[in-house]
From TrEMBL, chain A:
Catalytic activity reported: (2R,3S)-3-isopropylmalate = (2S)-2-isopropylmalate
Gene: leuD
GO CC, alphabetical: 3-isopropylmalate dehydratase complex
Organism: Pseudomaricurvus hydrocarbonicus
Subunit structure of this chain's protein: Heterodimer of LeuC and LeuD.
UniProt-recorded name of the protein: 3-isopropylmalate dehydratase small subunit
HAMAP family cross-referenced by the UniProt entry: LeuD_type1
Broadest EC class assigned to this enzyme: lyase
TrEMBL record, chain B:
GO biological process: L-leucine biosynthetic process
Cofactor dependency: [4Fe-4S] cluster
Listed pathway(s): Amino-acid biosynthesis; L-leucine biosynthesis; L-leucine from 3-methyl-2-oxobutanoate: step 2/4
Keyword Metal-binding applies: yes
Primary gene name: leuC
Protein name: 3-isopropylmalate dehydratase
Stretches assigned to the Aconitase/3-isopropylmalate dehydratase large subunit alpha/beta/alpha domain: 7-458
EC number of the protein: 4.2.1.33
InterPro entries: 3-IsopropMal_deHydase_lsu, Acnase/IPM_dHydase_lsu_aba_1/3, Acoase/IPM_deHydtase_lsu_aba, Aconitase_4Fe-4S_BS, Aconitase_4Fe-4S_dom, IPM_dehydratase_rel_enz
Entry keyword annotation includes Amino-acid biosynthesis: yes
Pfam families associated with the record: Aconitase (PF00330)
């Protein structure tokens, strides 16, 4: 997995609550048994006036020239709620999104992000409103800076905020670790646990 | 020391403490389906990794399969056949139990698992499907994950889990006539918001929970994820044990006694402390429906569409305005005056035999209103067969409902089965998101009773209106 340490990029506001994973990647855009080929279907219901014919909706923020090369999304409460589909994260990644800053996240979506090198950041709504204002004049120039090791978001205005992240997912992102390989290093410990567990709960084996 | 039920489940599965509040948890069972399980199995294989305990992994065909009579691998979902066949090949290669399309036990993951007794009190069960929280109804720690985490669980028998905070939601009082578990959970989400449970594992408790049968508890826990909770949980009791006894995957003989003795220790100690407690007075709950595009847009059926101007929170107010436009509604519209053209009974929320009995009881001797397409999709092939043995299928068909094969069907629109453009639909499912059930379809979530009553009256209906006329 790619490492995530510092990132500076264009931030696009998608300020609404409960942006669900059906909106991020509609089920009908998941056409292959694959983690690839999903970027085009990202936000298909909003991004296209007619999703089937891919007729671009000029109103949608990611279609506007000012927000070309967006790599950071700003949103409201409960971003990524709903379906567990990891395709939502794969689609964001393929599109070029590297971080999402929101007031809160759906839990499964949050975990899917950290598994795929995307950084989910929780900030208070006021901070997100401020970031949106600070970037809105010329988003291409007024970019946001994210420092994961330092756990800080820096606005182009100079305002900055600390954000929380658990030590384990932070380490995975910073080091670009494969969690399965990491866990398999504890194989002995798991086997020992299993022995005891099987004796304690024999009907489960 | 006093412990919550969650703490007990956490401790018995904790292999090791990782950094911070993260634990490596032992996973007893993994369930997969052809939509997201296919990619997990395929990816595991291409990484050269093995399923560690194939005998404890299960897979259902539910998401992509058609529910039309005579179905096979061909499906209305574009490239759906590929998902079905990839899953079948991968499941056979990994030697896991597959409930395939022609298996009499086929059905929706969260219907099949309790029905077969695969989920049991005290165990951990994960599935790359957000509604896995349903299965917490039996006192298991069951939660939805992504495909990558499913690979992790398959390969290592463990998961790295950030420990959630604990919340208890106590349902006190008594349910009024016509009010069901579906109304309870919609009422809760409507009262506290779709992010109200964010960061918490929720134990549902109280007098009303004790009264609910197991299938109703599954309905309640099913929508814990719509409350943004890590998962939902109900302490197992004598109803749970009675429900499980004799099911295919449940221990028998001496092992049954051993298991029950253990299961009886699975409850929150009297002095246990929760990070948050909510008390709901059930006497205040009416049959509840959603009007907007989030499950938090829920109101009593007797209410009118709200005015975003009355909402102090600016983001919520904006979301309400967007939802009104999408749903084709204006503030003040009476919910019981909204005409519908579609009615759906099905999904992992409300498609079990008790749901079908309730709906059939309302439909008996009545007709679906003209212009309404009404569809019933049983949650599993066994539910379907049971319903047919009871003659419920005849009731549905005589009323004008389509009677289908089991599957997820029109709970979501994958390009196949769907309702029409901007059609207004009353549905026993769990998500009223934009275009969830068809192109710009306007979905109103409700209980099976409300769906049946609405189908008959051709508009969103208060089931008590019909009961009065009996």
């Amino acid at each position: 997995m790619k490492t995530f340490t510092q990132h500076q990029g264009v931030a696009a506001p998608l300020i609404r609550n409960n942006v669900d994973t059906d909106a991020i990647i509609p089920s009908r855009e998941m056409k292959l048994v694959s983690k690839q080929g999903l970027g085009e279907g990202l936000f298909a219901g909003w991004r296209y006036l007619n999703p089937a014919e891919r007729q671009v909706n000029p109103e949608f923020v990611l279609n506007q020239a000012a927000y070309q090369n967006t790599s950071i999304l700003l949103s409201g409460m409960n971003f990524g709620c709903g379906s567990s589909r990891e395709h939502a994260v794969w689609a964001l990644k393929e599109f070029g999104i590297q971080a999402v800053i929101a007031a809160s996240f759906g839990t499964i979506f949050y975990n899917n992000c950290t598994r795929n090198g995307i950084l989910p950041i929780v900030l208070p709504e006021q901070a997100i409103d401020q970031l949106m204002k600070d970037c809105s004049d010329d988003p291409q120039i007024n970019q946001i800076n994210i420092d994961l090791p330092g756990q800080q978001v820096l606005s182009p205005s100079g305002a900055h905020w600390h954000f929380d992240i658990e030590a384990a997912p932070k380490e995975m992102l910073v080091e670009g670790l494969d969690p399965i390989a990491l866990t398999l290093k504890q194989a002995d410990r798991i086997e020992k646990f299993e022995e005891r567990y099987q004796q304690q709960f024999p009907w489960l084996q | 020391m006093s412990q919550t039920l969650f703490e007990k489940l956490w401790q018995r599965h904790l292999v090791s403490e990782l950094d911070g509040d993260t634990g490596l948890l032992y996973i007893d069972r993994v369930f997969l389906h052809e939509r997201t399980g296919s990619i997990a199995l395929k990816s595991l294989e291409s990484d050269g990794r093995q399923v560690k305990r194939p005998d404890q992994v299960f897979c259902a065909m539910d998401h992509i399969v058609d529910t039309l009579p005579g179905r096979n691998d061909e499906t209305l979902v574009p490239s759906g056949k590929n998902f079905i066949q990839t899953t079948r090949q991968a499941a056979h290669a990994a030697e896991i139990q597959l409930f395939d399309i022609d298996d009499p036990r086929q059905g929706i993951v969260h219907v099949v698992s309790p029905e077969q007794g695969i989920v049991q009190p005290g165990l951990t069960l994960v599935c790359p499907d957000s509604h896995t929280c349903s299965q917490g109804a039996l006192g298991a720690l069951a939660w939805g994950i992504g495909s990558s985490e499913a690979e992790h669980a398959l390969a290592t028998k463990t998961l790295r889990v950030n420990k959630p905070k604990t919340m208890r939601v106590r349902f006190d009082g008594k349910l009024a006539d016509g009010v069901t578990a579906k109304d309870m959970i919609l009422h809760l989400i409507g009262s506290y918001g779709a992010a109200g449970g964010s960061g918490y594992v929720i134990e549902f408790a109280g007098a009303v929970i004790t009264e609910l049968d197991i299938e109703a508890r599954l309905t309640l826990c099913n929508m814990a994820v719509e409350f943004s909770a890590f998962t939902g949980l109900i302490a197992p009791d004598s109803k749970t044990f009675a429900y499980l006894q004799g099911r295919p995957y449940v221990p028998a003989g001496e092992a049954w006694g051993q298991a029950v003795a253990d299961w009886q220790t699975l409850y929150s100690d009297e002095q246990a402390e929760f990070d948050r407690e909510i008390v709901v007075d059930c006497t205040e709950i009416a049959p509840t429906v959603t009007w907007g595009t989030s499950p938090e847009h829920a109101l009593a059926i007797t209410a009118s569409v709200p005015d975003p101007g009355g909402e102090a929170d600016v983001h919520r107010s904006q979301a309400m305005t967007k939802a009104l436009t999408y749903m084709g509604l204006k503030p003040g519209d009476k919910l019981t005056e909204l005409a519908i053209t579609g009615a759906f009974i099905g999904s992992c929320t409300n498609s079990r035999i008790s749901d079908l009995r309730v709906a059939a009881n309302i439909l008996k001797g009545r007709q679906v209103a003209e212009g309404v397409t009404a569809i019933c999709v049983p949650g599993s092939s066994l539910v379907k067969r049971q319903a047919e043995a009871e003659g419920l299928d005849s009731v549905f068909k005589a009323a004008g409902f389509e009677w289908r094969e089991s599957g997820c069907s029109m709970c979501f629109f994958a390009g196949g089965e769907s309702f029409g453009y901007r059609e207004r639909v009353v549905t026993s499912t769990n998500r009223n998101f934009e275009s969830r059930q068809g192109p710009e379809t306007r979905s109103h979530l409700a209980s099976p009773a409300t769906v049946a009553a609405s189908a008959v009256l051709g508009r969103l209906a208060d089931v008590r209106e019909l009961e009065k006329r009996i």
